[in-house]
From TrEMBL:
EC number: 6.3.5.-
UniProt protein name: Glutamyl-tRNA(Gln) amidotransferase subunit D
Species in which this protein is naturally found: Halorubrum ruber
InterPro entries, sorted: AsnA_fam (IPR006033), Asp/glu_Ase-like_sf (IPR036152), Asparaginase/glutaminase-like (IPR006034), Asparaginase/glutaminase_AS1 (IPR020827), Asparaginase/glutaminase_AS2 (IPR027475), Asparaginase_C (IPR040919), GatD (IPR011878), GatD_N (IPR040918)
Subunit structure: Heterodimer of GatD and GatE.
Active-site residue numbers: 90, 166, 167, 243
GO molecular function list: asparaginase activity; ATP binding; glutaminyl-tRNA synthase (glutamine-hydrolyzing) activity
Top EC class of this enzyme: ligase
Length: 431
């Protein structure tokens, strides 16, 4: 039997039929079922029958991460240059058929091979900053990522696409929003479902992200499915986006408003085929930051104060649970409603502030702003030295405080004003 043969595999009383694929290990068979999913089967214990030979042409080098074929990247002087920076995640993942789990294995050039629809849209440079699942993301990698993006822009990239796992993408997009003042687009994208699944969103997200990176703006964005259908990707500002569903393809939302823009997939695909920027495919809901001139350099401020915690208040919690916050550089609290905690915690917070910790208040509510001037508890919190973070999202507020502590002379004051589109100064619709 050879890759491309249609086979029937029996093991442990279970029968599977499909097309045999190349395997990343000698111990396992990989069969693509008729429904589109791949299944891994222990070779030693399987009974295999070849039903039909050569029903599908399969390139052994183009397997799920085990091949040695090099990505072929051609240069066209008429095309813009887009840097693809990989940090790992599902968009650059394959299935480990030993465990059945998804693991990050591809580098940036492998993504070009895995998503042939990217060919002809731009000249590409590939770079790997990390090869991790996003739950393992750390502030030190944000610094490495910011340095890499700045270097790519200084080297002439017309746009940057960061391939990232979805679980912590909103934090990394926030971090780069504060750390970089870029003259070109920086677009984060990922995939909720791996490439071996028939419902994978990797191709559409990658294509839309590349076209968004070529377009006429200089935003730091998250580009992901706008709906369960393959019709458009939403372009979310990096400091206002949140992953609001564990598994849906349209898991990401701009909190408090529509996304900054939408990019039509069909129009983006057609524009890419001509090599043009996909500005016509983008519908901006608000005016984006303008793209800078070719001579404009990137402004990089990558320093972070990592000793910052984000804590959530819940009714009935033990005040001793916050003892570990002593001597932290900063604390962001997710309070209830307008920004409240139990009154018994206020002395604890006051002691933190007196010890030099910047304490900022956000809300657990998905929309609206903190206002600690309405109720007695809020006024007591202000008297204790708490800083209102307005309608900054809690995760964004943590990243912002890390950046503000390292880069501003008055981080408490900085938490109360807009630095990168994360905060509306007044109660009005998003700009």
């Amino acid at each position: 039997m050879n890759p491309g043969d249609r086979v029937r595999v029996e093991r442990g009383g279970v029968t599977n039929e499909g097309v045999l694929l190349p395997s990343t290990t000698r111990d396992h068979l990989v069969v693509k079922l008729d429904g589109g999913y791949n299944v891994g089967i222990d070779r030693e214990e399987a009974d295999v029958e070849v039903l039909e030979s050569g029903v599908r042409e399969v390139d052994p080098a183009a397997d799920d991460g085990g091949g040695d074929a090099a990505s072929e990247i051609t240069f066209d002087e008429d095309l813009p240059t887009v840097s693809l920076i990989s940090t790992g995640g599902t968009i650059a993942s394959t299935v480990d058929y030993r465990t059945g789990a998804v693991t990050a294995q591809f580098d940036a050039e492998d993504v070009l091979r895995a998503v042939p629809e990217l060919a002809g849209r731009a000249n590409y440079r590939g770079r790997v900053v990390a090869n991790i699942l996003s739950e393992n993301m750390e502030p030190s990698i944000w610094r490495d990522l910011a340095d890499a993006v700045a270097e790519e822009i200084e080297a002439g990239a017309d746009g940057v696409v960061v391939m990232h796992g979805t679980d912590t993408m909103q934090y990394s997009a926030s971090a780069l929003s504060f750390m970089l003042d870029s003259p070109v687009p920086v677009v984060f994208t990922g995939s909720q479902r791996s490439a071996d699944r028939p419902s994978s969103d990797n191709v559409m997200n990658a294509v839309c992200a590349v076209e968004a990176a070529k377009a006429d703006h200089a935003e730091t964005l998250v580009c992901m499915h706008a709906s369960p259908s393959d019709d458009a990707c939403a372009l979310h500002r990096g400091t206002r986006v949140r992953k609001n569903h564990t598994s849906r393809r349209d898991a990401f939302e701009t909190v408090g408003a529509a996304p900054l823009g939408l990019i039509d997939y069909e129009a983006a695909a057609e524009a890419g085929a001509e090599g043009d920027a996909a500005d016509a495919a983008i519908e901006w809901h608000r005016e984006p930051t303008a793209r800078g001139s070719a001579e404009q350099s990137v402004d990089l401020a990558p320093d972070l104060a990592p000793d910052v915690e984000l804590v959530k208040f819940t009714p009935g919690m033990d005040p001793a649970a916050w003892d570990y916050l002593d001597e932290k550089d900063g604390v962001v609290i997710e309070g209830t409603g307008l920004g409240h905690v139990h009154t018994d915690l206020i002395p604890r917070i006051e002691a933190l502030v007196e010890g030099g910790t910047v304490v900022a208040m956000t809300s657990q509510c998905l929309a609206g702003r903190v206002c600690d001037r309405v109720y007695d508890t809020g006024r007591d919190l202000l008297d204790a030295g708490v800083v209102e973070a307005g309608d900054t999202l809690p995760g964004t507020a943590k990243v912002k405080l890390m950046w503000a502590l390292a880069n501003t002379s008055d981080p408490a004051e900085a938490m109360g004003r807009d630095l990168a589109g994360e905060l509306t100064e007044e109660s009005r619709p998003w700009r």
